[in-house]
Amino acid sequence: MSSRVRKSRNPHRRLWVLLIVLVSIFCVIFFAARGRFQVPVTSRAVLLVLSPFQQAVSWAGDQVSGLTRNIWDIVTVYEQNKMLRNEVGQLRVQNLEASEALAENERLRALIGYKQTMTQFDLVAARVIGRESATWSRMIVINRGRKDGVDADMAVVTEKGLVGHVVEAGWNTSKVQLILDPRSSVGTIVQRAESRVAGIVQGDLDNPMMPQMVNIPKNADVVEGDVIVTSGFGGIYPKGIVVGLVSSLQNDSGGLLKVGLLEPAVDFQKLEDVMVITVSREAPPEPIRPPVQTPGTETDPAAQAAEAKAAAADEGGQP
């Protein structure tokens, strides 16, 4: 039944399709030849009849042209957007590289300024290339070794203060023990002229980022805010290198001594570049000399020697 209905409808559909094709061909031929001759008055009726078809064709052409322009604009915008995103990515990378280079330049400039100031030291610049995971706040690795003149027991500093000392020197790398390590021991002294109290700075297990100054007498003149520098005792750390500031003071467990908690001069969380002191030409301490004494007193060695000599002569002259 359905096949018969389809067959009965097919002739009408074919007829309409043929009519549309013929009208289209006529329109194309008519509009193509329109400008070549003048249309007689009698053909105005034909123009009136074909006007809707002309408008439809013009509208369809405009739509196709507009769609083509839109598609082309979309493609162009997409390509431009892609290029701009690539340029933005490249500019971001360049900006990051420039910022990193600027920060490194500032750090190296500070190190160079310190090197020019501390003429009594021979300094080798080094970069921190690693930290031991088990002792992150106690040990670092630098990219300088024996081939650069670095050896064990050499002090390591920055322009701000003391970092630690080399405990193991390889050919081109070295391990540095930080002053935050509880195994570290730094002879120090209060920089204030009225105090000059000596003590030892070592790391604290309970507070890994803040070392402590121990062996301070209970009545010693040490107050919060005092600057602590190396004393030069021990042979590893030269005298006068800043270690940190006294943050707080408390009595030790025995009650006979005080312990000072220090805020390090160096920010160990941001430690990237350091310098190794390979040679120190600081002047040795002056020898201890007895004070000048008045001749003829008992504490004058020359007077004592003369008196002893005179007494011996008197004894020898007696019968």
Automatic annotation (TrEMBL):
Highest taxon above the source species: Bacteria
Which sequence ranges are marked TM in the entry?
A: 15-33
Q: Does the keyword Transmembrane helix apply?
A: yes
Domain Rod shape-determining protein MreC beta-barrel core residue range list: 128-277
Q: Which GO terms describe its biological process?
A: regulation of cell shape
Disordered as annotated region, ranges:
281-319
A GO CC annotation recorded here is: plasma membrane
Q: Which InterPro entries match?
A: Cell/Rod_1, Cell/Rod_MreC_2, MreC, MreC_beta-barrel_core
Function, in words: Involved in formation and maintenance of cell shape.
Q: Which PANTHER family match?
A: CELL SHAPE-DETERMINING PROTEIN MREC
The name under which this protein is listed is Cell shape-determining protein MreC
- Organism equals Selenomonas montiformis
